[in-house]
Amino acid sequence: MEQIDYVSLWIGKFSTSEELEKYLLVAYTEDGDAIPSQFEKDFKVDYYDEDFSEAHYANQDMRKLSCLLEGCSYDDVVIPNFVEKYGEYLPDGFNSMILIYDFQHNKKSDNEINGVKYLGSIRYE
Q1: What is the pLDDT of residues 35-77, one digit of tens each?
Q2: Among 29, 38, 63, 80, whose Cα sits 20 to 30 Å from the Cα of 89?
Q3: Dihedrals phi, psi of 85, to nearest 5 degrees
């Protein structure tokens, strides 16, 4: 849900950057109605502004959260806040991240869905 000054983070396992893009793709009907992405369906995200999101695929599994988030928007705040709250080390196999800014996802789950796991939300401003 929309929440100014918060950013939500998902980490994922994808074999290619195209696979990550396909997972996030919002399609449209002929009438212009949005068809939710697989990501939105998996995590029951009703709506988010795509202009306030970013996703990154790394060519290798990342062991450190700080390395996976390197170069993201507001990285001087986002990286230390996520590392402090959720720890530096990632479970094996994660190579992608999805960030949605001004959004606080409240549906905490320890489950991995389609290779993607919701990590959590932090304040970034």
Answers
A1: 999 999 999 998 899 999 999 999 999 999 999 999 999 999 9
A2: 38
A3: -80, -35
Whether the predicted model's global pTM rises above the 0.85 cut = yes
Token pair recorded at residue 100: 């949605």
SS3 state at 123: strand
Could you tell me which of 6, 2, 1 has the C-alpha nearest to residue 85?
6
Contact 70, 83 (CB under 8 A): no
Is residue 69 within 8 A of residue 75, CB to CB? The reply is yes
Parallel, antiparallel or unpaired: strands 2-12 and 116-123: antiparallel
**Distance between CA atoms of 52 and 73, rounded to whole angstroms?**
10
Strand 34-35 and strand 27-28: the pairing is: antiparallel
* Contact yes or no for 85/120 (Cβ under 8 A): yes
